[in-house]
Model the fold of this input.
Amino acid sequence: MVNFYQLVTQSQSGIYAIFNINKILMMYRLPMAFYYFKRDVLKPVGITLNVCYFLPITIIFLLSFTCAIIACGTQVDVTRTKNILTPKNNSIVWLLSNLPEYMFDTKQPISIFSTTLYYTASNAMQLGSHDILISTSAEILIVIIICLSGYMIFTYVLVIIANSQTIINSELTLYQSHTKHIIKFMKMEKVPKNVQREAIQYYEYSWKQMHGLHINDVLTKCHSVLCEDFLYDQYKNTFDKVTIFQYLDSTIYRELSRELTRIYMLPNVEFIKLNNIVSSMYIVHSGRIYVCGPHGRLYVILQSGSVFGCLDNVPNIRSMVSFTSSGSVDLLEIDAKRFYKIMIGPVIHELQKNMLLTNMSYVVGRNIKHALEYVPMQDASMERKQSSKSKILNGLGMAMTFLFVSCASIISMTYVTTFFPMGIAKYFVIYLFDLLHGIFLAIKLFTPYHDSKGQLITDYKLIRKRLVKQPIFYLNLLAIIPVDAIFLIDMNLQHQVYVYRALLLTRLLRFYNITSFFKKFNDILNSDLLIMKLLSIIVYTTLLLHVETCIIFTVATRGTREFAKDMWAYQPDNNGSTELICGNQYICAFYFATSVLTFSGYAIYPRTLMGISCAIVITIFSKFIMSIAVAKLSACIQNYGADLARFDEIFSEMKSFLRRSAVSEYLVKCVVYYCEQLWIRSKGVQEPYLLVNAPPYLKEQIKIAAFGKHIYNNVLFANAHPDFLRHLIQMIHLQIFFKNDTICEQGDINETMYFVHSGTIDVLYSNETEEIKVDEIQELDCFGVIQGLYERTPHTHTFRASSVSVLCTLSLKDWSHILDFYPASKFEIYETLYNMPE
Done:
């Protein structure tokens, strides 16, 4: 009976082992555990979530195939108390392979499991395991499945992470592309350096505040009531301070909140100048606004809850005062006509009462006791000096130096800890890097910085208070303290050597400096995202290879200076003894680490359980790290051409629409050619995106520097008011024409005047039989003056580009309302035109 039971048990052991694997079906619970965190997958933490999600799946996958291989290659011997797993039918299977000779009993269950897991992991990761041979068809089939499954799983992981990174970085990359375009435009148009700096500072500050998104755009996913509730909660405290809102209830507040646009201003910006034409009403959300009269006299300081701008029920007003931000300011903007449509009678009455009594375009907020208290601005020269100091000490150059010093410190420390080189001088390199970190930390105590609102902080007490709140300060301080130097004096005892090595490991805390660098400078608009990603991959890969090299060497030497003869550095020769297969210890270990990290296979074989365990961990860990690195690089390259991809998508839709419409093939070819050339020349736009969407004060400065010569040097506007000319230049728009493009036909009515910014234009006259060239217009010339000053006036000639030409256009409908505020200038312009010779 016992023999029969043993026989049945032996015959069914393999079947039982295979069916017992059905427990892996319980892994269906794993996705549910991460379901709640799916919303975070598109955040920077999403990479960590993906690794935490796929790592258990990978381990389950490897363990399952490990069990399958063991079940196919072994049998259970229940008659023995030890070594119950034996090769099936005593055939030559991988368990009995003699290449290499393992330094442990391969028949022990734990040995079989460890070796099989190593074998499975190396094949699944596409490393190839050359030290284990397979001979049965079942094993070959399983290895094929392992290789294909491993390839598919890790390709899937790579695609998931790459997709997440693409979405995360898409807005930043697009904004960086727009920033590069506006910088290139300003340099090409020779805009003054100070205007360029101001523009870049604004765009960087705007990115930090909004990250390319407006709160109203984000809330479009919500229903209208929820959107209004959220915005009302954001602005409620400000509304409570507005004097004219004392009669309002929450219903009007909620509707008003939805119409407001939040804008950000840098310190010391005169965003509404004297005699500016204003069409919007502004509410001060936070910060201070200086209101000054025509001669620079300070009238009042507006704080949170104050209202200013176009306060009357008219489309535009002419401002009699100027408004300047004293620091970083948040404003809530709404069109004046739209405001009056929302408001109820008492509010309108209060506004009209204020306009009659004070005749001012502002209303001071409630509960502001010190509206006239002047807060002096910092001396301009001192501020520039402190700003330059902050820019240098907080800039990319200083940060890069600190980054490489931290990397060198970690590499030198781990090398000394692992390889323990002879010569006391080599240990002082570690303390040299400690000294440099101490200097960097001391510099930080005196480095001005810009706060979250863009304000330059120069007070040393505030600087130090901010620094001591940051974890990086304490991590660097702990890494700097040379407690280990005490043991460097006398290390005759072995335990003192180990203590010294352990204390040296505190320098690993400087890894936080490296992660902080890339976290900070990945979002800088002036830095190239692709270059920063490549730099991060190079730095992290170098550190990973070096650390893995140190781990491999430590395992191979068991903490001593020499390789153990039963480890991978020694291999059996033909005489039955072992020989050292590599001379340089570091290079040998580095080769092993590199071959694992790059999935190229390795020719150094682990021969002990410790070596096999080390190979398993490093193999799986390296695969995930390289998947993340490749995914980040792939995502960055995709984002690098994101603007081209978006343009191409819109371009393809347009071509399809034109071909489906009743449009001649010739016109379709012209449109396609023009769009292609426009992309090559200016990224598919007539004007830089950030110039079109810039705040009025910044748009005015850039356009005056770029296009002002066309207005200031034009005899038509010679006697006009300077403030009128500022507004006029702000209304100029660019249009690009390529060779043989027609700008306007004879008889066209477009109420537009043109200024030739670059290129040449042919002037043509058409009669019933032919088209005659009558003139050629060069750079800085203009045409269509009469058509741009009088409504419904047709052009008398045809204008065609004879080369690639950039024209500044001025449409009458864009600036006719300004003439109403400058009647003297209007008279001078039309009088000058009337007196011009024909």
Summary: The radius of gyration is 37 Å. The longest strand covers residues 280-286. Residues 1-12, 90-94, 96-100, 369-378 have pLDDT under 50 and may be disordered. The first helix runs from residue 2 to 20.
